[in-house]
Amino acid sequence: MIRFGSDYQEGAHPRILKRLAEVNFEQSPGYGEDEFCAEARRLIREKCAAPEADVQFLVGGTQTNFTLLAAALRPHQGVIAADSGHIAVHETGAVEACGHKVIELPAVNGKLAAGQVSEYCRRHFADDSHEHMVMPGAVYISNPTELGTLYTRGELNALRGVCDHWNLMLYLDGARLGCGLASPENELDLPFLASVCDAFSIGGTKQGALFGEALVLLRDDLKRDFRYILKQRGGMLAKGWLLGLQFAELMRDGLYEELSDHAIHLAMRIRRALREANVSFLVDSPTNQQFPIFTDEQVRRLSAKYAFSDIRPLDDGRTAVRICTSWATRPEDVDQLIADIRAELQPSR
Asked: What H or E segment, with its residue span, contains residue 199?
């Protein structure tokens, strides 16, 4: 079985494994206060052109999201998110378990628009009984989104303006940020994100690390006492150097960008082959997640050899699936998939 189900099915890049083995018997201070974390922080600050940023390392994306929001929100506040957003759908109510409501707004291709956020806040505060309702305190977005779509600079600048107007924190979940930045349609870079967001994450789990997310904090009130909350929420890893070492290796010599480029290059090859076969898509994604729409018979035939995920039956009787490439996807596996797409799906000439 050749698996295109997700981008975290492989272990870690060999450079990371080699480095872990090299320092395995070295003794390091715990809880992220080691030289490896210090080096990773330095490299991330340099890439972000944000020397004032605080950088903390956590094990996974869900943990990163709920810990950051627990630190940012007061007890009566909630976070606005797209109804397809990860915190709204795929985190088992982790944010709600911390006492904060996820306020879902309808997304267009996975994205929130500044206008709908502003309109929600306007209606909230115009209601005479707004003090009896959860107050919006933050906006959560992801880039790429759950549907592989990307925000533009204009869209993020507009969201920033709305957040400033309504006193909301803007947080970007970057679990797949590397693939977003490597996309041929990308407009963003790390310095821009550091200038427009109050906090954002840089994913490692889906980008070549064994595990780990780097959380970049830009707003001073988020930095203050954050490590208390990190510890309280179970995010302060005793062997924190394991996280720092991985991010230091990823951020050195362009490895993070190289691995992201690999995933995007292969995904774009698959997308071209599907388009040539006249396959339609659930959404036009320029990243490593592709969502082609197949007939049930096509799904059955392809699934005999390939594993997909996020299978969604559609009203017209067809099915959308997610084909996901990763930093470690083998080109020969993509070659085989493309050959089978052409054999099974290519229209007759």
From this structure: strand 199-203
Spatial separation of the C-alpha atoms in residues 234 and 64, rounded to whole Å:
10
**Residue 126: is it exposed, middle or buried by C-beta count within 10 angstroms (0-12/13-18/19+)?**
exposed
Contact 318, 295 (CB under 8 A): yes
pLDDT band at 349 (very low <50, low <70, confident <90, very high): very low
CB 287 within 8 A of CB 265: no
Stated as kind and residue range, the H or E segment containing 151 is none
- CB neighbourhood size of 192 (10 A): 15
Instruction: Kindly report, residue by residue over 20-51, the tens digit of the pLDDT.
Output: 999 999 999 999 999 999 999 999 999 999 99
Return the amino acid letter for 189. Answer: D
* One-letter identity of residue 148: G
- Rounded average pLDDT over 194-213: 98
Rounded CA separation 143/121 (Å): 23
CA distance 242 to 188: 29
Residue 166: CB atoms within 10 A of its CB come to 18
Distance CA 62, CA 334 (A): 30
Q: What token pair was written down for 204?
A: 């490692």
Query: In which element (H, E) is residue 311 found?
Result: strand 309-313
Q: Cα–Cα distance between 115 and 121 in angstroms, integer?
A: 10
Express each pLDDT in 147-178 by its tens digit.
999 999 999 999 999 999 999 999 999 999 99
pLDDT over 70 (residue 117): yes
Q: What is the DSSP string of 94-130?
A: HHHHTT--EEEE--BTTB--HHHHHHHHHHHHHSTTG
> Cα–Cα distance between 22 and 298 in angstroms, integer?
47
Query: What gap in Å lies between CA 271 and CA 273, rounded to an integer?
Result: 5
pLDDT on residue 93? 96
